[in-house]
Write a structure and sequence with these properties.
Number of domains: 2
Radius of gyration: 23 Å
CATH topology of the largest domain: Aldehyde Dehydrogenase, Chain A, domain 1
Structural class: alpha/beta
Shape: globular
Helix content: 25-40%
Distance between the termini: 55 Å
CATH superfamily of the largest domain: Aldehyde Dehydrogenase, Chain A, domain 1
Strand content: 15-25%
Number of helices: 14
Length: 483
């Protein structure tokens, strides 16, 4: 399905749709130009699904659901395990495709593919532990609680972690016994097609999984508006998430929404500052800051604030920016042409309102690059302090005490992830309890793994992916009472 490639080789792959166990080419279909963000050059053309394609995807997913629902758990598990193994064995080639589509350094891209493989491997085992329970009843009576698949699922995933986020949804849904129609991003089709290829190679029955690229609004209205689809899982922006909620309301359809955030980082004066900065700076510029849990709002206790921003700026200036396929690149381009201009507007607004640009602040000359940037003393009314930049910009402000730090961390209507750095255990416990976020990292950033729930609060969405909670979101609960 895709031609293996590696460093220095040309992007080449046969982009298609995957419906009813078959690959569909572009004959008669409109196409989307796939662009390498490091060069701004078109590298492929992607066929887009028509309404007829979506009708067929809905029909076959509905047809396949009863069969997959009733498939023995051991067989489901074996297929998922094989799919994960396929991704792992082909991680280098798939990662190279991902880098040329999305821009991130190829080592990061390969790591993302391994993460996708881990989702299939973990849910292959977790489905075996989905026990339900038996309630206490008088002799001769039984009441049991069981979990059953919700039905046909539609998933919508973004371009920042295209294969990992697709795998996170699909692995859990398939493990639960659902059939799936997935619309991944048009910007990164080849790496997403690798998931369909993996499932096909693993022996997934025909019609259980469909992969359809297309015009986002048309596809979402068509799938969500269909009586066939009973569950929607979406990762993306808050405005789009709210739009999908409206579409789902008419059918009273279940939703899982991960809608991004604006992660605060609270740094207290008892930390080892150099050690902390060595963690913070690489994490901030991972995937060019295009991470929904990227540390962005740095609130630093006033006694160490000046040393913090000095050390952060020095490290930021040393970040190696370039084509993700090149040796030594630590940060690649932004994923599309819109992002550099959007970041520049935020930086200019903050500068005009009094922020100091201590590093970066400018876009690159070629491709979709923007310099790793640190803004210090950023006023609270700056747009970037209130709206997620989703790019390689860190903003910093001092705070006096823990109460002030918590007030700033919690003041926005977002609550996906937050981080805190302190050596005081009592303070760490309080921060974990009082920070309003679905995930809190204390002295580290390891908040996303196959066995842990991932999700937000407030306008960052609801529902979880990962862990047993990620399986439950694709299930309905049934109580059976026998007298």
């Amino acid at each position: 399905m895709f031609a293996p490639i590696w460093l220095g080789m040309t992007y080449q792959t046969d982009l298609k749709l995957f419906i009813d166990g078959a690959w569909r080419a572009g004959e008669g279909r409109d196409c989307h130009e796939v662009v390498n963000p490091a060069t701004a050059q078109t590298i492929a053309r992607l066929p887009l699904a028509t309404e007829a394609d979506l009708d067929e995807a809905l029909h076959v997913a509905e047809r396949a659901f009863p069969m997959w629902r009733d498939t023995d758990v051991e067989k489901r598990s074996a297929i998922l395990r094989k799919a994960g193994r396929y991704l792992k064995e082909n991680a280098k080639d798939i990662g190279a495709l991902l880098t040329q589509e999305q821009g991130k350094p190829v080592k990061e891209a390969i790591g993302e593919v391994y993460g996708a493989a881990s989702m299939f491997a973990w849910y292959a085992e977790e489905i075996k532990r989905d026990y339900g329970r038996t309630l206490v009843r008088p002799v001769g009576q039984r009441s049991i609680v069981t979990h059953q698949p919700v039905g046909v699922v539609a998933t919508f995933t973004p371009w920042n972690f295209p294969i990992y986020l697709l795998a996170k949804k699909v692995a859990a849904a398939l493990a639960a016994g659902c059939s799936v129609i997935s619309k991944p991003p048009e910007e990164t089709p080849a790496c997403c097609q690798a998931v369909a290829k993996a499932l096909d190679e693993a022996g997934l029955p025909q019609g259980v999984f469909q992969l359809v690229h297309g015009v986002p609004d048309m596809v979402s209205r068509k799938l969500i508006g269909s009586d066939v689809v009973r569950k929607i899982s979406f990762t993306g922006s808050i405005p789009v998430g709210k739009h999908l909620m409206h579409l789902a309301a008419d059918g009273v359809k279940r939703l899982t929404l991960e809608l991004g955030g604006h992660a605060p980082v609270l740094v207290f004066d008892d930390v080892d500052l150099d050690k902390t900065l060595d963690q913070l700076v690489p994490q901030k510029f991972r995937n060019a800051g295009q991470v929904c849990v990227s540390p962005t709002r740095f609130y630093v206790q006033e006694g160490i604030y000046d040393d913090f921003v000095k050390g952060f700026a020095e490290r930021t200036k040393r970040v190696q920016v370039g084509d993700g396929m090149a040796d030594g690149t630590q940060m690649g381009p932004l994923a599309n042409a819109r992002r550099p201009d959007a970041i520049r507007e935020l930086v200019d607004d903050a500068r005009a309102k009094g922020a100091k640009v201590l590093a970066g602040g400018e876009r690159g000359n070629e491709g979709f690059f923007f310099q790793p940037t640190l803004l210090a003393d950023v006023p609270l009314d700056a747009d970037i302090m209130n709206n997620e930049p989703f790019g390689p910009v860190a903003v910093a402000r001092p705070f006096k005490d823990m109460d002030e730090a918590l007030e700033q961390a919690n003041r926005l209507p977002y609550g996906l992830a937050a981080f805190a750095f302190t050596e005081n255990l009592r303070r760490a416990n309080i921060l974990g309890d009082r920070i309003e976020a679905g995930m809190v990292g204390i002295n580290g950033f390891a908040i996303s793994s196959a066995d842990a729930p991932f999700g937000g609060v407030k306008e960052s969405g609801f529902g979880s992916e990962g862990g047993k909670e990620g399986l439950e979101t694709y299930q309905v609960v049934k109580a059976i009472h026998m007298c």
